[in-house]
Each structure stands twice: as structure tokens, then as C-alpha cells.
Amino acid sequence: MSEEQQREARMHKRYRREKRFRIYCITALTLACLFLLFFLADIISKGYSAFWQAQVRVEVSYTEQSQEIPLAAVDAEMRSIVSRSWFRTLPQRISQDPELLGQTQTKWIVAKGDVDQYLKDKPNSLKQKERTIVDRLQAEGRTRLVFNTYFFTNGDSKMPEIAGIKSAVIGSIYVLLVTMACSFPIGVLTAIYLEEYAPDNWLTRTIEVNINNLAAIPSILYGLLGLAIFINTFGVPRSSAMAGGLTLGLMSLPVIIISARAAIKAVPDSIREAAFGVGASRWQVVWHHVLPLSMPGILTGSIIALAQAMGETAPLLIVGMMAFIPDAPGGVTDAATVLPAQIYTWSSAALRSYESRTAAAIIVLLAVLILLNATAVFLRKRYERRW
Q: What pTM does this model have?
């Protein structure tokens, strides 16, 4: 074989390798997209039904007995399919409106969890007698599915038909506010010092290595650190948004520092030199020139860190934010839970009715995370400067 033929053979061999490598990359991308689509389709198919609530139309008699024994307000046949939550609030409604006594009304009442599952063709544990009643009511047009407002206006409940995410959402907001309040200023100031003031010596390099290592350690270790420092040492209330926010703030610090340093480093030295040339001090250069130009990148990294913190469960489990919290917290020191912890609690519940609500809460969490990441992308594209 001549030298020219050998060169062409090697060239064709390289082209074949490049083609195979390209096929491998496209295959990997396709598999990743298919997995993501399968995951989303599975979650949506399981969770969309939780956004609808089953109701039954029954005759309600408001009597003196109803105020003492709420079960007497509905005939015995309907007691087994109506949610106990309605009976529990009946005395309160009568005390608020005494004119109801002696009246008989036709009302749409929330059905219990198994009836809700049955009407949605989901697995349930209804007895045959109860199924016969539900089938008859359905044939008479006395059952319906309406938008589940309880899912967004109620907190957690032992009765899945009225369980909601309100307390978890408010708790998540408090936790994230505390997280950003403590991690953002500390992270940005640390990044400014390391990039603009700190000398290049062994101590600075050691700090940089440790910051990079802290960004990669398991999140549950931050939970142990938060338990030891904030709860056991400083006495922060356990299960509170303050404890959870400070713990997640520790976890978010390395990400914010790294992203802020990258944004500050991206500012050209010519801007600093021009500011120094007109007599600006180091502080003026940083405050009036470097920080404003790097702020879009800093905000992008901070939002990504916030989204990561919002999806964490392990650190919050250690600081006690996995408790049953039916009421929304009134402040950062009140007992609270967060959306990932609520999802974990529902996923481990024995009642099947919680399965669809678990998937629905995951949909809400994914929507918030996508919104946060989209905001980060928008800020990067909108305010990005190319030097």
C-alpha cells in the first residue's frame, strides 16, 4: 500500500471515529430526553387528578342534635361516603349562624378519600355496600368533580381529601427568605474579598480549595452542622423556618461564593485600571464599577443556589422540619415545614389517596424550580455583557 493510500485510510478511520462519537453523543442526549419525558409524563399522569375534588349532593338537616352530635345532620346512608372534616366543622357553622337550626338544605359536600379515588377510577378500599351507594348517586347526578381549592388553601391533614400545601408553601417562603438573607450578603462579600483584596498566598489558596470542597459534600452533613450550631449551641427553635433557613444558608454559601467570584473575575481589568487612573480608591472601583457590572452573574448564581436549596430535604430532616404541621407558620420562629418535606411525608403515608397528592405537590415544586431557573436564564441573557 502506497503512502498516499495509507494517509487516506487513516483519514477515513478518523472520520469513522468522529461519526461514531457523534452517534454516541446523540444517543446519550436522546436517552436523557426520553427519561425526562417519561418522568414528567409519569408524574403528571399520577398527579393531575389531585387538582380535582369529588363532592356528593346530600340533604342536610340542622337540628339541636346536629350541634351536639354532628353525624345526625346527614342520614346514616351518607355518613360512610362524606368526609369527616365536614362533620367536624358543623357545630362551628351552627354556632356562627344559629338561624340554620331547624332548616333542611341540599348541599354539595366533600366526599371522603376512598370515594374520591373511586370516582377517579383510582385504587381504593371502598366496601361493596359503599360502592353501590356511590354508583347510585352517580347515576342520579349527585356526584361531581370540582377544582380542588383545598389543595392550595389548606395545610396538611390526616384526612387526604382536605390535605393541602398551604402551610408547606408559606414555610418554604420563610425558609428561603432566611436563606438568602444570610447567605447572599456573606457570599458576595466573601467573593469580593477573595477576588479584589486577598493576597495570593497559601492561606488564600487553602480557603479557595475548601470552598470548592464544601460545594460538593453531601447536604445531610449541613443538617448535622445546623443542628449542632444553631439549635444546640444558639438555641434556635427546632422545626422553625429560622433553623431550616440558616442551615440551607450554610449549604448555599459555597455555590454563591463560587458563582460570584466567576462573575467578578469576568469583569475586564481595563475597567479597574481606568477607574484607578482617574483617582478612584479600591473601594470605589469595587462599589461603582466591578460590582454593578458583575451583579447579573451574581444574581444568576444566587437564584440557582436558591433553587437548589428549595429542593433539599435531607438537611431539614435533621433540624426537625418533617413534623406534622397543619397550620401555616406566623413567623420564622414558629414550627414549619417545607414543600419537599411535605412530599416526603405524603409519599410515606399508608392511605392511597395521598399518592396523587404527592405527585401533585411534585408538579407544583417542579413548576417553581423551572420558574426560578428560567428567571436565572433570563437575567443572564438580558443583562449579560460580552467584553
A: 0.86
